[in-house]
């Protein structure tokens, strides 16, 4: 990397859901069953970066996801890498 760019990061978000909905089933015609599901429709949102040069993953877990959460995540990423740069070379 050159002196102008200290880190090249790739960012992505992901949702992991606790839904236990059944998409499709096979039953004989007229013999469909009701299958109970017990999911509580909860989930977790993950926001993370991958440092291209080092392979370091910086990840944050949130209960909800909106513009405010994303902005706070970006601030945390910035603070993480600013702190890392102030600790010395690396």
Relative strand content: 25-35%
Strand order of the largest sheet: 1-2-3
Distance between the termini: 12 Å
The radius of gyration over CA amounts to 21 Å
Uncertain runs are none
The helix count comes to: 1
- Global mean pLDDT: 82
Proportion of helical residues: 10-25%
How many strand segments? Answer: 3
Biggest sheet descriptor: 3 strands, antiparallel
- Spell out the helices and strands N to C: EEEH
Give the overall form: elongated
- The SS-based structural class is alpha+beta
Main traits of this protein?
90 residues, alpha+beta, three-stranded antiparallel β-sheet, 1 helix, 3 strands
Give a brief rundown of this model:
The chain is an alpha+beta fold and 90 residues long. The chain contains 1 helix and 3 strands; from the N terminus they run βββα. It is elongated and about 70 Å long.
Provide the fold topology.
Blueprint lengths: L8 E9 L25 E9 L5 E6 L4 H20 L4
Antiparallel strand pairs: 1-2, 2-3
